[in-house]
Amino acid sequence: MTENEQTSIPNGKAGLIEKIKANVSQTHIETIQGIGDDAAVSHYGGGDNTLVSTSIFAEGIHFDLTYTPLKHFGYKVVAASISKILSMNAEPIQMTISLAISNKIMQQHVLEFYDGVHAACDEYRIDLIGGDITTSRTGITISTTTIGRADENEIVTRDGAKPTDLLCVTGDLGAAYMGLQLLEREKSIFNAAPTAQPQLQGYEYILRRQLKPEAQVEVLKYLKTKQIKP
Q1: What pLDDT is stored for residue 148 in this prediction?
Q2: What global pTM score does this model have?
Q3: Looking at the domain 29-225, which fold is it?
Q4: Does residue 2 register a pLDDT over 70?
Q5: If DSSP states are collapsed to H, E and C, what string results for the chain?
């Protein structure tokens, strides 16, 4: 392959992950579940299993600073990251966050982002235990690692569904997407006419679903009180 030659990914993200997974083997007995679900599962002795999940957020792909306040985005990063642990019916407890930032980002921007991170960590009782910061040639890239815990009999995996199981969703399907469409519309108007005022009145709910979503912690707590395993 030449330096400038590129290959496509015909089967998308899921297909690429499966190809990577095919060449991975587990060496340690502590590894219960590796690549292929929302989080890896390990057991280091004692009671609960440990879950570890990673997420990545790239500017221009997952967020647009034209209309995304950094404080809101810091909150969203935490909510989205811990949701992977929650989706496996586990309790998220710790997180690391690493940033790659370009020279267009000032110190106050980073601190604003972390204001949102701290607010979400307080809301969801998450300990921020580390991370890293480095430079980037373009934009911002954020990587998170989230650690959770759960009893081995309570963990829910993607392949755990059975015939006759009830399929349910939480929240309002499409609300965040409609919020994104509204923001993209206003961005297009602003680019064409910078003096135009945004028309966002009456759309607060879908904007909040897009800019500051909440993790479904209370849903899991409610299901546990009813002895329902999701």
Answers
A1: 97
A2: 0.89
A3: 60s Ribosomal Protein L30; Chain: A; (3.30.1330)
A4: no
A5: CCCCCCCCCCCHHHHHHHHHHHCCCCCCCCEEECCCCCCEEECCCCCCEEEEEEEEEEECCCECCCCCCHHHHHHHHHHHHHHHHHCCCCEEEEEEEEEEECCCCCHHHHHHHHHHHHHHHHHHCCEEEEEEEEECCCCEEEEEEEEEEECCCCCCCHHHCCCCCCCCCCCCCCHHHHHHHHHHHHHHHHHHCCCCCCCCCCCHHHHHHHHCCCCCHHHHHHHHHCCCCC
